[in-house]
Automatic annotation (TrEMBL):
The keyword Cell division does not apply. Keywords: Transferase. This is Uncharacterized protein. InterPro entries: CAT-like_dom_sf, Plant_Fungal_Acyltransferase. GO terms for molecular function: acyltransferase activity, transferring groups other than amino-acyl groups. Belongs to the plant acyltransferase family. It holds the Pfam family Transferase. It comes from Adiantum capillus-veneris (Maidenhair fern). The keyword Heme does not apply. PANTHER family: FATTY ALCOHOL:CAFFEOYL-COA ACYLTRANSFERASE, TRICHOTHECENE 3-O-ACETYLTRANSFERASE.
Length: 464
């Protein structure tokens, strides 16, 4: 694969010199970069008009999405420039407001990093793109900046394949976009590229105002496991995954039927246990599998706790004021704790009950208490979770498969293969695999891998 160009795409109109995006306390906790990549398998044919000549396509105008293959990069770049009129902070830079000791985004129009590349192979040569593989990571932009400059908040890379298919990858600092708002960002980009304008108006009100703590802050719940940053000196630097805490992820597929069977198995025989979702049942199963793999491969007491962080989208539910177009981190993580012994020996329905109890605690009052608790801390907030946690990220049911640039939906969206140990990622199974999910997890040894899969065997291997 060859990279052909790296440029900075800037808004068509300059932002006011004083424009600043205030960040919420929840944003502060997520100062690191994350990526997602969308694969489009298609043979793009030139759109002709009258005399069968390709319609011109230039830097300022695009008149039809079915442009020639070589114009895909230009189409996305032009759409991105227009998109930045609605997302001006995406072209800004992260800054530390020293007077308030808080992070903010300066809307200084330094630009979104845009990379174009070409892979001299057909997309099919990558094989199953739902399988994590280091070669796929080459299609994801590396954040670059000069020594005297701060790194971009957002980067995009478009990579063309010989077959006419292409990959679109987004890398962004999590302080600016969570998974939901990243999906909407790409959804709007595709809508503009098709000539339809934005489809979901972004809500870019001050996040500090939208999710503000009380004055004075009065936490009403105990939040002992929410950490705070101790050193503010390099807080605006790019956060890279520590090498010693990373590995290549393993993908585990769960078909729609397997997930239905898992949910039925959790419910069966427990008349007082009313219901659970497939999502809750799967989290319980994966948490149990992780506990078994740790207890049986490492010399640790079975009384050791293995907390799990479960993300909850606040938009329109717990916080009705957060719309679907809210740009920022509209998520909180509920922490559920259990010992290794409890997880290994308990039936799944008891683990699900523990998860459900914690989810019920996610009330508007609880969210306000977290905002107040974080406000009471000194200095910027901690951005890395404790490695002893079983951290979890979920991208299921987000509109990535609606990201249509004019040639149909992506065949799959994927995450980088390089992942942190002791973290779990759940994704939709694919555009053609309705209601199936894929889990990605890093396992540190063959023995861990074997024990983990033993716990899941009844469902991973289940099929109609």
């Amino acid at each position: 694969m060859r990279l052909e160009a790296t440029i900075m795409v800037k808004p068509p109109q300059p932002s006011p010199s004083t424009a600043v995006l205030e960040l919420s306390n929840l944003d502060h906790m997520l100062n690191f970069y994350c990526s997602v990549i969308l694969f489009y398998s298609t043979s793009i044919k030139p759109h002709t008009h009258g005399n069968n000549k390709v319609i011109p396509f230039n830097d300022t105008h695009y008149i039809h999405p079915r442009v020639h293959t070589k114009d895909v990069v230009l189409m996305v770049k032009c759409a991105l420039q227009e998109l930045l009129t609605h997302y001006p902070a995406a072209a800004g830079r992260l800054s530390l407001n020293t007077s308030q000791n808080r992070l903010e985004v300066e809307c200084n129009d330094q630009g979104v990093q845009f990379v174009s590349g070409h892979a001299d192979i057909p997309l099919s040569d990558l094989g199953d793109v739902s399988l994590p593989h280091p070669s796929i990571d080459l299609l994801i932009p590396n954040i670059v900046s000069r020594e005297e400059e701060r790194p971009p908040i957002v980067a995009l890379q478009v990579t063309m394949f010989n077959c006419g298919g292409f990959a679109l990858a987004l890398t962004n600092n999590h302080v600016y976009l969570d998974g939901h708002s990243a999906a909407i960002f790409l959804h709007n980009l595709a809508s503009i590229a098709r000539g339809n304008g934005i489809s979901i108006a972004p809500d870019t009100i001050s996040r500090r105002e939208r999710m503000k703590p009380q004055s004075p802050p009065i936490p009403t719940f105990d939040h002992p496991l929410v950490m705070k940053k101790k050193d503010a000196a390099t807080y605006v630097d790019m956060k890279l995954l520590p090498v010693e805490r990373c590995g290549t992820a393993t993908r585990i597929s769960f078909s729609a039927n397997a997930l239905m069977k898992l949910r039925s198995d959790v419910l069966i025989g427990h008349t007082y246990f009313k219901d659970c979702s497939r999502y809750q049942a799967l989290i319980a199963l994966l948490w149990k599998g992780r506990a078994r793999s740790l207890l049986q491969t490492q010399e640790i007491p079975n009384c050791i706790e293995l907390p799990i962080r479960i993300p909850i989208n606040l938009r329109g539910r717990i916080m009705p004021s957060l719309t679907q177009g809210y740009v920022g981190n509209g998520i909180i993580c509920i922490i559920v704790s259990a010992s290794l012994q409890e997880l290994c020996e308990s039936p799944l329905y008891l683990i699900v009950l523990k998860i459900q109890g914690a989810l019920l605690d996610a009330t508007p009052e609880f969210v306000q208490s977290i905002l107040d608790h974080l406000e009471c801390g000194e200095g910027p907030l901690e951005s890395w979770p404790d490695p002893s946690f079983f951290g979890m990220s979920s991208l299921v049911n987000l509109p990535f498969y609606d990201t249509d640039f004019g040639w149909g939906s992506p065949i799959y969206y994927q995450l980088p293969s390089r992942k942190m140990n002791n973290r779990l990622y759940i994704l939709d199974g694919g555009a053609q695999a309705h209601q199936s999910w894929n889990a990605m997890v890093v396992l540190e040894s063959n023995m861990e891998h074997q024990i983990f899969l033993e716990t899941l065997a009844n469902y991973v291997n289940f099929s109609t």
